[in-house]
Amino acid sequence: MSAQNRVESGCTFAVGAPLPDWVPRGARLYLSHTANGLSLRALARSTGCHASTVMRQVRRFESRRDDPLVDDALSRLDRALRAKALDDPSNTELAPMAHTSCLSAQDAAPSWSTEDLLDVMAHLRRPDAQIIVAPDMPKAVILCDDGAGGTERLAVFDRALAEMLALKAWITCRREGRVRSYVISPDGAAALRDSDMNAPAATRRARYGVAETPVAVLARRRDKTGAAFLVPELVQAADRLREDFVMAQLDVLDPMSADRLVRALTDRTLPGPNIAPPGTRAARRRVLGALQDLGPGLSDMVLRVCCHLEGVESAEQAMGWCARSGKIVLRIGLQRLKLHYDRLGEDGLLVG
């Protein structure tokens, strides 16, 4: 049976099965036409709409490929569909086309849900919040004005998830160039409002609440004079190291001591493939520089608490230290880390 006949017999676009439910209808039509080779008339008959309507949707998504995030998102989904065609022995029409495409190792359609997208979108509620992406960065970062002339980093996540937000038109490009910034779009704001109205209050609080790190918990403690145990600058230094750690793709590895991690980064003997894009390599250099500057002892405590998110008491026990000494060592380590970043200045920025 031909691809066109399969659509006419009741299959929804022929892309419904391998694609997640959050993929927009227009993108499904576009991919059915470009990746599955279905004619506009066949798609119109399958969906019960006029061929001109399908044509407008296809042209709309083709024009949106000028946005690198949208282009990459459609390319990922295109590869997923063409790889699916290779696995279908009855698909004699699509298999040759799939063989001539440039398939990569990431042929599976992204498995994120709408809830995952909304979790990221929640950070964009903050005034001046923006998503920053660059071609050599495997991660995207959400930045926000901290109100004191500086920049606060709200989240770091897979770049592919930012691609999906752009595909759904939930974010819009504010600044073009090699490093691009995106802000929430009217459609994205409407999606958040609808989610708020449809979700129970307890669910909304859990979804939009950011899990506190051990450093954030420790920062709430006060001494006898009422002063904070960790000043905001130390918390920001901890967050900066954690975000570089994630961008360096070190969070997916089994936890290791600071000394072992320094050796692995220096010798380029990390587990798994060591061929990484420039953004990942740059983040690994920043992590290596920070750990080397901290030195033995301080680097272990900072790595455990800031990067592995291990509790201070647990880190004390693992390292054989006496009770209540860990938080003092951590504060000294964060003070040293802040000085390290101060010396780097603009050369140590996350992007650019």
Description of the molecule:
This protein has 352 residues and is of the alpha+beta class. It folds into 3 domains: 3-99, Chromosomal Replication Initiator Protein Dnaa, Chain: A (Orthogonal Bundle); 114-208, Arc Repressor Mutant, subunit A; 214-348, no CATH class. The chain contains 17 helices and 5 strands. It has a 5-stranded antiparallel beta sheet with strand order 3-2-1-5-4. β2 and β3 form a beta hairpin. α14 packs across α15 (298-307). The longest helix is centred in the first third of the chain and has 20 residues, at 68-87. The termini are far apart. The relative contact order is 0.08. Mean pLDDT is 77; it is low at 1-17, 92-107, 201-211 and 348-352.
